[in-house]
Amino acid sequence: MSKKSDPFAIELTPELIIRAYRAGIFPMAEDARATDLFWVSPEMRGVMPLDGFKISKSLRKTLRQHRYSVKIDTDFDAVIEGCATAGTDRESTWINATIRSLYGQLFKRGLAHTVEVWDGTELVGGLYGLALGAAFFGESMFHRKTDASKIALAHLVERLNAGGYLLLDTQFVTDHLRSLGGVEIPRETYEVRLAEALVRNGDFFAVERHRHSS
Known about the structure:
This protein is about 35% helix and about 25% strand. By secondary structure, it is α+β, with helices and mostly antiparallel strands. The chain has one domain: Aminopeptidase. The strands form 2 sheets. The chain has a 7-stranded mixed sheet, with helices on both faces. A two-stranded antiparallel sheet has the order 1-2. A hairpin with a 2-residue loop joins β5 and β6 (about 120-130).
């Protein structure tokens, strides 16, 4: 039996994803096997204050002494695969094939970015998200070695501060993010902060520009 198309279905495109984020909405899937997405706008929104990232003594020591390489935008597929793989820090994932495809397209357009932590040729942690204006929407992060995701997040916060960003959206706040300074704010407050960030221009590569000019 042929499956009838839904006349009210909305085609999922990178442009629709961008419009949704600008309106304070983001997509998720029930799990990796799901074929559909649903739209989310939490009553309480998770954010990481860019002036309130908490670096413990142990993390500060790790950031100072680790031998990993931190890279930007070199392997989106590997990062999203790491984020989509269930492991010790997650039992399931909401990243399905549609999410991979849409954000892969946004990455090719230079709107989605990755922060990657490498141990030689092995990707041991990282995160990805979407940059619009002076807002960065963190999507997911993962680690395969201790503190690798914390290293990625610390680098992201430093990069966003250098680039004049105003908002780091984490969508929700986990215990892990809360320990690093993550907080929840009401949707109304979030929408005001989002509007302020979207009319500004953040520079995701300000770190590199400063390095090359000095």
